[in-house]
């Protein structure tokens, strides 16, 4: 019998296993996929020019201490997000405006003032300490900003934030969920920033998945069972048994479940989770959060003074960034196709998905039909809703009213079962840092329950 059986080898599960091991607990990790990392997935380019980050990419060295400590421990080289050049805002398919990167788009003075007022309000709310308000949890983010007097362009921008941050429309998540997310993540502006003050500052030259692979090495290959989807968890009070689809059984004193809560309902957990836990987790949703990564031979957009960043109200790409690693002659635009537009895009055939993305890139950067925009050397499209062991991203979002109603049970241990995942993290929820933070907390909970003291942080 193991002390701890960890289900899932994403960053939260890996960290939980590593912290538990460091506390002297015998640990086994059971992972459905044939790889570790979960939503951190770096795929080598056929051209040999580095890798494409199909999942998580950006980190911050000063604001995210856990992921940064690993980056240093593993000697990982980083690249700073490029800030030079003009950005583009697309308001509808036929109108675009260029603006200096990092400044609000050049809307009319009234529209600009309105956007800055509402953004300032949300930023102020997101710097307040404490739990979210019940009132704000029962109103959609869209209604919340309308009640504050948002004008159409501001309403569009808030919707774009919901799409790009969570893969949902602003009508589909509560204002409290949005504000709480910002509170846990150093405020709205830190989430949106691409410089040293924000979440999109640095990327890893050799891929973020290296962190997951190297933590797995620390845990030990023999302690991680890949290609082993779990179907049932049985809590016998004195111990717990975990069974996989191919009939393997693992026995532990405790179990740490690290899969997104939206997927708990697919497991046969006995005895059943308490009713309030089921009520909240049965209703969490995962966003439509997709990437099209378009790789070129040269960064042609820079020659015309473009930064590579664009945002669009009309889509299908709602936001894009230059994700090149010049040292490796890797030149790419990473295009997010999220929310409702991502839902629609995911229904297209692969060649249709690629065609609409290339057409939009060409339009945004004023490139002709015979230009390099239409001659990528590689294109990746990753639809996380199509991944059976992810079903969307970034992190499960609670239903309207549930964040406050079920705060006392959401993510809290049930008998011998403990829950981790980026969704539960008090810091950088939705991010790799949050996954590591939650994994650490979950393992400490288990160690305390078993009566062991964790030794070290990393
Ligand atoms: C497109 C995209 C872009 C992102 N960008 C960033 C970014 O720039 N910066 C950042 O910090 N974060 C980013 N993230 C978020 C980041 O990837 C996640 O927050 C983090 O990886 C979540 O880790 P986790 O362990 O909580 O969950 P997961 O990674 O989902 O791990 C859960 C694990 O459980 C496994 N599993 C599921 N079901 C079963 C089962 N039945 N049996 C066994 N195992 C199972 C899964 O295969 C997976 O390995 C991004 C994510 C996506 C998808």
UniProtKB/TrEMBL annotation:
Residues 11-446 form the Amine oxidase domain. Its EC number is 1.4.3.-. Substrate binds at residue 336. Its cofactor is FAD. It catalyses: a secondary aliphatic amine + O2 + H2O = a primary amine + an aldehyde + H2O2. FAD binds at residues 12, 31-32, 230, 423. GO terms for molecular function: monoamine oxidase activity. Keywords: FAD, Flavoprotein, Oxidoreductase. It holds the Pfam family Amino_oxidase. Belongs to the flavin monoamine oxidase family. This is Amine oxidase. It comes from Aspergillus sclerotialis.
């Amino acid at each position: 019998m193991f002390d701890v059986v960890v289900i899932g080898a994403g960053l939260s599960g890996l960290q939980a296993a590593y912290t538990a091991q460091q506390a002297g607990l015998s640990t086994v990790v059971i992972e459905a996929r044939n790889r570790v990392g979960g939503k951190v997935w770096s795929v080598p380019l056929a051209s040999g020019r580095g890798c494409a980050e199909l999942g998580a990419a950006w980190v911050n060295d000063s604001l995210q201490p856990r992921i940064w400590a690993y980056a240093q421990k593993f000697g990982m080289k980083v690249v700073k997000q490029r800030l030079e050049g003009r950005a583009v805002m697309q308001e509808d398919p036929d109108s675009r405006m260029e603006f200096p990167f990092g400044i609000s788009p050049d809307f009319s003075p009234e529209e600009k003032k309105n956007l800055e007022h509402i953004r300032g309000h949300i930023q102020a709310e997101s710097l307040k300490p404490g739990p979210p308000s019940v009132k704000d949890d029962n109103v959609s983010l869209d209604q919340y900003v309308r009640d504050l007097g948002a004008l159409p362009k501001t309403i569009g921008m808030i919707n774009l934030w919901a799409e790009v941050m969570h893969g949902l429309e602003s009508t589909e998540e509560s204002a409290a969920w949005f504000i709480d997310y910002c509170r846990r993540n150093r405020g709205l502006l830190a989430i949106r920033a691409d410089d040293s003050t924000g979440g999109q500052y640095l990327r890893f030259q050799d891929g973020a998945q290296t962190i997951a692979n190297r933590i797995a090495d620390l845990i030990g290959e023999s302690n991680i069972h890949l290609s082993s989807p779990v179907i049932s968890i049985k809590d016998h009070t004195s111990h717990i048994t975990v069974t996989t689809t191919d009939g393997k059984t693992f026995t532990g004193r405790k179990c740490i479940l690290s899969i997104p809560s939206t997927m708990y309902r697919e497991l046969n957990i006995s005895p059943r989770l308490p009713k309030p836990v089921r009520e909240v987790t049965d209703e969490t949703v995962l966003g439509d959060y997709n990437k099209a990564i378009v790789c070129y031979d040269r960064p042609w957009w820079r020659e015309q003074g473009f930064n590579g960043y664009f945002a669009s109200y009309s889509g299908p790409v709602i936001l894009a960034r230059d994700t090149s690693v010049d040292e490796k002659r890797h030149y790419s635009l990473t295009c997010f196709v999220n929310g409702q537009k991502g839902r629609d895009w995911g229904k297209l055939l692969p060649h249709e998905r690629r065609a609409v993305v290339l057409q939009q890139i060409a339009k945004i950067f004023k490139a002709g039909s015979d230009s390099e925009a239409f001659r990528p050397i590689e294109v990746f499209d990753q639809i996380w809703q199509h991944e059976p062991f992810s079903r969307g991203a970034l992190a499960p979002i609670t239903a309207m009213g549930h964040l406050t109603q079920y705060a006392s049970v959401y993510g809290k241990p049930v008998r011998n079962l403990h829950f981790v995942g980026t969704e539960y993290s008090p810091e950088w929820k939705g991010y790799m840092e949050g996954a590591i933070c939650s994994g650490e907390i979950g393992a400490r909970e288990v160690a305390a329950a078993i009566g062991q003291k964790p030794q070290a942080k990393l």
